[in-house]
């Protein structure tokens, strides 16, 4: 009995969570077909977003040079006039120099479009896809039965769950956007502070430390608000209530949640960087492969979050039972 209790108390490690998610995914062919069909609208919007986003990433140095605080670096150019025959400079003067592109005209509209796509159509489609995917996965995971693809579609359409989960997703979107904005804001401030001093190594070190800290915070909170999303779908708790329950269940499990999110963040980053380096955004089948793999990773991420939530919930319930039994023995 004691050994059985110890086995129940044992936590799933990060590798165990990932292995269970992959096993669940590949062992259900109907679920793979269902998630593929379910993700098609998200796939096509993501395709357009990624092409535009990767082009912007490639042009980031040029965009950065055209920002207002860099205008003085290209405001003038030096013209030198040489004496005829001697090739000796006689005089020089500066004249106004305007770059070929303007930040406000060429790049600001693109950045606004990227922000709009990310916040509205991409967010809504990812929400719908994630809700339907997790709802079907939770039924398969708990009931341990094989549903057909048609049954998954019929049983996954629940407007009340969609509405409630949308409220939770707004909180997720707000906090994630705030943290994502903090990355370029921090880099821009560091650059403005240290550009005139010439301490570029110091600037790089400060940026690196700041990015690491922000990334740690972002991944820790990603695990919490992703679990709140699962709670909204599985347990029907929405908004602030879902975030509170998620924060409570995450206590003592922050490291596991962070590592799970880090795995998917690193895989997604490697896919995007490899696609950028190979120039897949210019055309060809590479970008389709990348978006397809990102869609699979997204499904595996939500499956991992669901398994992580179930394990944290089981641990908390077991701990509560042990505490109550301990009190009874003390009496």
TrEMBL record:
Keywords: Membrane, Transmembrane, Transmembrane helix
Lineage of the organism: Eukaryota, Viridiplantae, Streptophyta, Embryophyta, Tracheophyta
Presence of keyword Amino-acid biosynthesis: no
Membrane-crossing residue ranges in chain numbering: 29-49, 107-132, 166-185, 197-218, 224-245, 257-279, 285-309
Domain of life: Eukaryota
Transmembrane found in the keyword field: yes
Organism: Glycine soja
Protein name: Transmembrane protein
